[in-house]
């Protein structure tokens, strides 16, 4: 795994994120176990079912690469000490507002 | 410029075809990421924050206009219309889709380029002086030896799985523009007592979390024995380098822990033990064949002073400033080397659009003997331009925002992509670079400050070479907030030194005013304009600058 992220506590709201294998775009696991490019679509997970969702993501290796837990708010959206990194992943580079999802493009 | 022979061509084509198959198997699910990752890395493919990143090798930083145009086409067709030139004289594309990378590799092969060994624990692109073959101060052209090392190290089976990555740089000038002492191996071409040109060998330089300046292990090795000597070093490293701890696996750690004397003894022992069949003997005809590709172009017999150049200087203040700052002396009367800054205000250092790449390619073709160089400072150089043509070159550069007159000044800073792109970064680099550029946007003031190297890294891996900036900036993460540690006194030249950490990290918004205070202090205490920042720092020590740095932080 290329992205060793900080370990989250079991009761911390979290989501599963990864990269689309074909395009490299950031994706998020939804409550229907589909992959969305919008972080607000991510299923907010709390123990005990969260490990099952990560296990599902890891098993979906053809579709996605390097899934991991990221911290989110209980109501959804990026949160925690990696807020800046995950916001950049979710939206795009801060120096290039014309690129990434913030520009309405991948 | 070197041209591929049938072996180079076959190797690059076969490698591209092989990777196409590997990508197909990854996308079909046949290959898992754990198996695919080492394969993609060997072909320069990383997975970054937003997309895959492809790093393309530019051997010793040299391009032709044809190659530059192809890089532009790739930027426009497969990326988002730009590329990022790196501190290893390579180019990176930040937005390529994995499914398209095999096509990109084919397009690169069409112009004798590739991405082999731009990642992974192998010998990486050999770098060199961007003014090689043009500057009067070099002993001879180092590029043929870079090419020889490239051919020797490409897919060398013994050195394909080293403990860690391995970087070699070569220069032939006393003023070191290739930062050879912060490479795993640095080679300085120099004569022995008999006047025969060979190499002084430095080993164990490097940056990252444990920075070291390389130590001289051999005062002189002949050209004929160069590869054998390099093999001796690589074998000692391969045998004794640590593989149990990634952070202690670079050769600098081995040299440091073994001690330079013992390390040198081990290398000399290995070198002496090489039997006749083990020696890498370079056939004279092969050396001559490679040398021929680097024969100097046919320079015209021109007067020292160009009337066209002088007239434009007198007429055009912007041109005069650019000429003062961005031109470098050429060995041939009537010629100059043009430094094209990729550091205009507000742009990520090292970025160039596809259109800008085409403009530079056109200029190289029309005025620059079809020669383009990438400098490790993330700028572009046209090494051979007639002084008479400089007004036309400048006018074209101005049209395309390529005429920023800041080469070697405070806004010509080095910066890695940082947290805006990099999966390893802890903090942003580009925004800090842009803040500093904005603070010193006044061209008169910047010129008044004079020569000063600012290097910025977004994490301890030090891709932005912060340790060897006169002022270095290292981004760190503190409980989710970006902080920036400042180092003072580093240098990457022939007096290579690792900067000292000045004190506690600064918040993002504190960096810009802190820089201003440091520069104001420098201007206050220097002995005239000719005393550069680094000279004052070495004369007075860090204290006055530390005080300025933290004055109201």
What are its keywords?
heterodimer; A: 106 residues; alpha+beta; 4-stranded antiparallel β-sheet; 18% helix; B: 553 residues; Sulfite Reductase Hemoprotein, domain 2; Sulfite Reductase Hemoprotein, domain 1; 5-stranded antiparallel β-sheet; 18 helices
How many H/I helices of chain B?
Answer: 18
Number of strands of chain A: 4
Our count of domains of chain B comes out at 4
The average pLDDT of chain B is: 96
* Share of helix of chain B, binned: 25-40%
CATH superfamily (homologous) name of the largest domain in chain B: Sulfite Reductase Hemoprotein, domain 1
Order of helices and strands of chain A: EEEHEH
Q: Which fold name is given in CATH as the topology of the largest domain in chain B?
A: Sulfite Reductase Hemoprotein, domain 1
Q: Which two chains have the most extensive interface, and how many residues on each?
A: A-B, 28 and 33 residues
Task: Map the helices and strands.
The complex is a heterodimer of chains A (106) and B (553).
Chain A: E1 14-20, E2 26-29, E3 35-36, H1 50-59, E4 64-71, H2 83-91
Antiparallel strand pairs in A: 1-2, 1-4, 2-3
Chain B: H1 6-27, H2 33-41, E1 45-47, E2 52-56, E3 62-63, H3 65-78, E4 82-85, E5 91-96, H4 101-110, E6 127-128, H5 143-153, E7 168-171, E8 185-191, E9 197-203, E10 215-222, H6 226-240, H7 251-258, H8 260-273, H9 284-293, H10 307-315, H11 317-326, E11 327-329, E12 335-340, E13 351-353, H12 354-367, E14 372-375, E15 379-386, H13 390-399, E16 414-415, H14 430-439, H15 443-449, E17 454-457, E18 471-478, E19 481-488, E20 500-501, E21 506-507, H16 508-525, H17 533-540, H18 543-549
Parallel strand pairs in B: 6-7, 7-8, 16-17, 17-18
Antiparallel strand pairs in B: 1-2, 2-5, 3-14, 4-5, 4-13, 8-9, 9-10, 11-12, 12-15, 14-15, 18-19, 19-20, 19-21
Helix pairs in contact in B: 1-2, 1-4, 3-4, 3-12, 6-8, 7-8, 10-11, 14-16, 16-18
């Amino acid at each position: 795994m290329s992205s060793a992220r900080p370990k989250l506590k079991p009761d911390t709201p979290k989501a599963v994120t990864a990269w689309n294998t074909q395009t490299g775009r950031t994706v998020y696991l939804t409550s229907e176990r589909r992959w969305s490019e919008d972080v607000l679509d991510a299923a907010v997970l709390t123990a005990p079912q969260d490990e099952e969702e990560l296990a599902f993501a890891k098993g979906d290796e053809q579709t996605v690469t390097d899934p991991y837990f990221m911290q989110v708010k209980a109501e959804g959206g990026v949160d925690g000490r990696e807020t800046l990194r995950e916001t950049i992943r979710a939206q795009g580079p801060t120096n290039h507002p014309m690129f990434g999802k913030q520009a309405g493009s991948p | 410029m070197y041209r591929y022979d049938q072996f180079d061509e076959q190797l690059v084509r076969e490698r591209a075809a092989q990777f196409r198959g590997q990508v197909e198997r990854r996308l079909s699910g046949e290959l898992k990421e754990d198996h695919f990752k080492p394969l993609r890395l060997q072909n320069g493919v990383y997975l970054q924050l937003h997309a895959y990143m492809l790093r393309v090798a530019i051997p010793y930083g040299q391009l032709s206009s044809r190659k530059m145009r192809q890089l532009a086409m790739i930027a426009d067709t497969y990326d988002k219309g730009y590329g990022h030139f790196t501190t290893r004289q390579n180019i990176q594309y930040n937005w390529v889709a994995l499914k398209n990378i095999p096509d990109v590799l084919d397009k690169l092969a069409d112009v004798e380029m590739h991405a082999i060994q731009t990642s992974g624990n192998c010998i990486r692109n050999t770098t060199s002086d961007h003014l090689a073959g043009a500057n009067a101060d070099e002993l001879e052209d180092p590029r043929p030896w870079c090419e020889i090392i490239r051919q020797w190290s490409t897919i060398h089976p013994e050195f394909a799985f080293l403990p860690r990555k391995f970087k070699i740089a070569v220069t032939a000038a006393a003023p070191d523009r290739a930062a050879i002492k912060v490479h795993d191996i640095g080679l300085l071409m120099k004569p022995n007592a008999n006047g025969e040109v060979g190499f002084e060998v430095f080993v164990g330089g490097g940056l990252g979390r444990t920075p070291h300046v390389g130590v001289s292990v051999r005062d002189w090795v002949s050209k004929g024995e160069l590869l054998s000597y390099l093999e001796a070093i690589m074998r000692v490293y391969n045998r004794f380098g640590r593989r149990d701890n990634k952070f202690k696996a670079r050769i600098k750690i081995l040299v440091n822990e073994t001690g330079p004397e013992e390390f040198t003894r081990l290398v000399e022992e290995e070198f002496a033990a090489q039997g006749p069949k083990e020696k890498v003997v370079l056939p004279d005809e092969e050396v001559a064949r490679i040398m021929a590709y680097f024969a100097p172009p046919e320079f015209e017999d021109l007067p020292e002073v160009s009337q066209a150049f002088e007239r434009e200087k007198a007429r055009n203040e912007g041109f005069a400033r650019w000429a003062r700052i961005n031109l470098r002396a050429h060995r041939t009367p009537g010629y100059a080397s043009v430094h094209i800054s990729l550091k205009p205000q507000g742009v990520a250092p090292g970025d160039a659009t596809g259109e800008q790449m085409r403009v530079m390619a056109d200029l190289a073709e029309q005025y620059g003997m079809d020669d383009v160089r990438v400098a490790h400072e993330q700028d572009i150089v046209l090494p051979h331009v007639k002084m008479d043509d400089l007004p036309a070159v400048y006018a074209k550069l101005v049209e395309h925002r390529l005429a920023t007159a800041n080469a070697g000044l405070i806004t010509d800073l080095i910066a890695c992509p940082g947290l805006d792109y990099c999966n390893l970064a802890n903090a942003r680099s580009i925004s800090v670079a842009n803040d500093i550029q904005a603070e010193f946007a006044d061209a008169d003031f910047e010129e008044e400050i004079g020569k000063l190297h600012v290097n910025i890294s977004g994490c301890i891996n030090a891709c932005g070479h912060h340790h060897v900036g006169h002022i270095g900036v290292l981004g760190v993460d503190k409980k989710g907030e970006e902080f920036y540690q400042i180092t003072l006194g580093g240098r990457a030249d022939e007096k290579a030194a690792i900067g000292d950490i000045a004190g506690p990290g600064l918040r993002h918004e504190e960096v810009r005013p802190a820089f201003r205070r440091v520069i104001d202090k420098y201007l206050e205490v220097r002995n005239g304009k000719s005393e550069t920042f680094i000279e004052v720092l070495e004369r007075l020590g860090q204290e006055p600058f530390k005080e300025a740095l933290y004055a109201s932080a």
